[in-house]
Design brief:
Elements (H helix, E strand, L loop, with lengths): L6 E2 L32 E4 L4 H10 L7 E4 L13 H17 L3 E7 L24 H16 L6 E5 L18 H19 L3 E5 L5 H12 L1
Parallel strand pairs: 1-6, 2-3, 3-4, 4-5, 5-6
Helix pairs in contact: 1-2, 3-4, 4-5
Length: 223
C-alpha cells in the first residue's frame, strides 16, 4: 500500500525562513530523515555546478536538512546512466553531505516513456505494458536497483507518478480494474526497493490537472 511510504506528501514544500540564518547547524552523519523529523528543504534545479555549490555552502546557515536535486540536474532516475549526469549528481550529493545536509534526494518519474521498457512487456492493446506479467515487476525492481547503485550516497527519491511518460493508469491489466490500483502498484513496486531493500526515503510528489486525476491519486493513497 502507498501508506507504507516513509513520507507521503501531495506536494513537498520548502520550510525555511530568513530568521533561521542566525543559527548554523552542526554537521551530522547523513541518512534518510526519520518520519518524526521536520523537513527543512531546498531544491536545486540548475546544472550550473558553481551556483549549486554556492547554494549548498549556504545551507547550514538556514539549518537545511533536506536537499532535492531536480530538473537540469536530474529529472528521472534513469538519467544516472549518463556518465556526465551521474558524476554531477554524485559530486553534489557528496558536497551537501560534507556541508552537513542530512538528507539529499533525487527526482524521478514513473513510469518512463513506453519505449524505455523491453518490447516483451508491451503486449497490451496499442503496445501498452501488461501489468499482470510478474516478469515486468521483477524487471522494474532490478532496474531501480541498478540505477540506485550508480548514486550510492543518495538518501532517497522524490517520485512523481502523475504527468509521466507512460501513464501507469493507462497500461493494460485484467486484474487491476481501476486507475487507483495501477498507480498504487507502480509506487509500491518502487517502494519495495527504495524503502524495503535500501532503507531510503521515498517522497511522493504529485498533483492533478483534472478532478478525475485527483480522484485517482486519492484512491491510490487509500488502496
Amino acid at each position: 500500500m502507498i501508506a507504507r511510504l516513509a513520507r507521503l506528501g501531495l506536494l513537498l514544500v520548502a520550510l525555511t525562513s530568513p530568521g533561521a540564518a542566525q543559527q548554523t547547524s552542526r554537521a551530522t552523519p547523513h541518512g534518510a530523515l526519520r518520519s518524526d523529523e521536520p523537513v527543512r528543504g531546498w531544491t536545486i534545479l540548475s546544472n550550473s555546478e558553481v551556483d549549486d555549490l554556492a547554494v549548498i555552502a549556504a545551507a547550514p546557515k538556514y539549518r537545511i536538512n533536506h536537499l532535492e536535486l531536480s530538473h537540469e540536474v536530474i529529472m528521472d532516475l534513469n538519467e544516472v546512466r549518463d556518465e556526465k549526469k551521474r558524476a554531477l549528481v554524485n559530486r553534489l550529493v557528496d558536497s551537501a553531505h560534507a556541508t552537513g545536509v542530512r538528507e539529499v534526494v533525487v527526482w524521478d518519474h514513473a513510469l518512463y516513456e513506453l519505449a524505455y521498457y523491453p518490447e516483451r512487456f508491451r503486449t497490451g492493446p496499442d503496445g501498452t505494458i501488461d501489468l499482470d506479467d510478474p516478469a515486468f515487476w521483477a524487471w522494474l525492481k532490478q532496474d531501480y536497483r541498478e540505477m540506485l547503485d550508480r548514486v550510492p550516497a543518495a538518501d532517497g527519491i522524490v517520485l512523481t507518478f502523475i504527468e509521466t511518460g507512460a501513464r501507469a493508469e493507462r497500461q493494460h491489466s485484467r486484474v487491476m480494474n481501476t486507475p487507483q490500483e495501477k498507480l498504487a502498484a507502480v509506487v509500491n513496486a518502487v517502494a519495495d526497493v527504495v524503502i524495503g531493500e535500501r532503507h531510503l526515503n521515498l517522497y511522493a510528489r504529485t498533483f492533478s490537472y483534472t478532478h478525475e486525476e485527483y480522484r485517482a491519486i486519492i484512491g491510490a493513497v487509500e488502496c
